[in-house]
Amino acid sequence: MSEKRLLPGELDSHLTRRGPLFAAVWLFFLLDPLRHGWAERDTLAGVLGMLATVAFGAVYMLSWLRLRRDRQQLVPRPSIQAAILWFLGLVALGVVMVLCLGEVGTASTVYISVLAVMLFPARVALALVLADAVLVVVLGEVMAGWGSGAGLAFAICAAAVAMFGIQQMMLRNLALISAHEENARLAVDNERGRFARDLHDILGHSLTVITVKAELAKKLMDVDAVRARAEIDDLERLARDALADVRRAVEGYRELSLPGELARARTALAAAEIEAELPNSADDVPSEWRELFAWTIREGITNVIRHSHATRCTVVLQRNCVEIRDDGRGAADPGVGHGLTGLRERASTLNGTVVTRSLDPGFSLSVVVP
Asked: What is the pLDDT of residue 291?
């Protein structure tokens, strides 16, 4: 039979559900103070001792429930002010139990040490537990008729150590849950960034080409109706292609075809009346770099058409490098732009480098991979 394994969140949920039951079971040791108080119920000390014992158990359980709620909200410990109030409240009730019931009231000291471990950092809790154990030993020596407090001091230390181990496991679970939530948040942020980058690259290129063709069709309307109609047909095709690209981006499909981008570049440059010098084949480029080079060509050609006012554009494609050069007016600040930022992010995943250079005249964009 296979063993069921729990995820960190499920494990923490099991622990937090069982925590109050675990705490309630150990209230069994408060039965002795209650029994002693009942035996002395005819006295004010006996009545007060019973009331203090019941209140002590209630405060102890409420503290567990408060810590359970905090863990569900991924809060490791309450604020220092709340911790001090809980601890002092339990100590005050424990003092009343000892004053009213005598030695049997010292059963409260074990619970006080356990609560100290739950509420305070390790160093503070250690000091409080040691002080509690020493106090029990001293009371056993100085109070007439009381037995040795060594056994109770050992119980105090053992309970504190056990609670410390349980708490460390809970804190590790909380850290794991927080890490999982942070990873999930980062994954969502990365996906949003990817989608925004892809949408910019896809629509930026397509809308630029559509705009250029629309302007050309408008100019040809009264001069060459046949060619104008052909340009309008291309506009319809490009719009449909852009819609298909957006749908693929939404579906998470990001792979581009390097030959397809070269063909698109040829069409787009011709529509913009820019002389194109493009490679006829992309066979030398390894498959793992083809998508990056395709994005580079898309971004570079878009920028040439949109910004350069060039008359000629050259794409140089090598095994580990792609370069787009033009003879336009260059760029005032080549490092600025969402397209280049996205391209740098893509290149970095393959340890590639994006290089921009101003030429005389013109501008060069290239990506080099090792």
From this structure: 85
